[in-house]
Amino acid sequence: MKPPALSDRRRQLLGATAQALAEAFKQGRLLDDVTQEGRPTTLAEAWHLQDVLVDALGGHGGWKVSPARPDREPGCAPIARERIFASPAAWQAPLGTALQVEVELAVTFAHDLAGPATFTADDIRGAIAALHPAFEVVSSRLRHKDQLPDICGVADLQSNAALVLGPGTAAWQALDLGRLRMDLLVDGQSVAQASEGTPLATMIDSLVWLANHARDRGRPLRRTDAILTGARILPTTIAPGAMAVARVEHLGEVALRA
User: Fold this and answer.
1) What domains does the chain contain, in order, with CATH numbers?
2) CB 10 within 8 A of CB 45
3) Alpha helix locations (H) across the chain?
4) I want to staple 246 with a disulfide (CB 3.0 to 4.6 A). Which of 77, 103, 160, 239 is the partner?
5) The predicted structure's pLDDT at residue 71
6) How many CB atoms lie within 10 A of CB 118?
7) CB 107 within 8 A of CB 98
8) Which residues neighbour 216 within 8 Å (Cβ) at sequence distance 6 or greater?
9) How far apart are CA 50 and CA 77, in angstroms?
């Protein structure tokens, strides 16, 4: 279902917020406040603000999607093309903030996912080209995010700052994604581990939802997109100058210099 249309006035107010967030993003600084009238109040408004923001950053090159919960459907945000990097990469956090990373799995596709029909699990399974170890760099542009409604965080690309993509493998179908072992090392020392996570069927379901949602938003999933599928190791702070490496069973590793 396509998001409902917004009035010209709401588009103008949300667009001003998106431009302010984009400038903060580009300049590596935090935005002190968002005007009351410029805050999104519905998911449709948050998605519109996401679109304006990511276009102001040069367009999207991927997505992040979170698995559904019993009380809500998946969440998502487009990822700015200029903030997607191949491993090994380097990234500095905005002034006054700490660099935080999540260890995730990402997918890339063998072909575009476009067309009028509703996408199914079989469509998604047939389209996945590779599975990759990945870092999501998480950082809000909102200095006082915790004092704002949660939907403001959704509009702020769900706190996505960057994606670092490790080499992919096409031999993913037989992997037990719910039990992949992962180890996050900082300067060679293990600081976090995981051995349980979102199973394959749940990940496919979230990608089905995203494929249909993205098409309805006029941003169908493309062969060139990289899709983050949810945190396996939760946000971990990396000190300036440190090297973070995530090793993922069967998939290899992804590296980031803070």
Assistant:
1) 58-257 (3.90.850.10)
2) yes
3) 8-27, 43-56, 121-127, 150-155, 200-216
4) 103
5) 81
6) 10
7) no
8) 1, 2, 3
9) 7
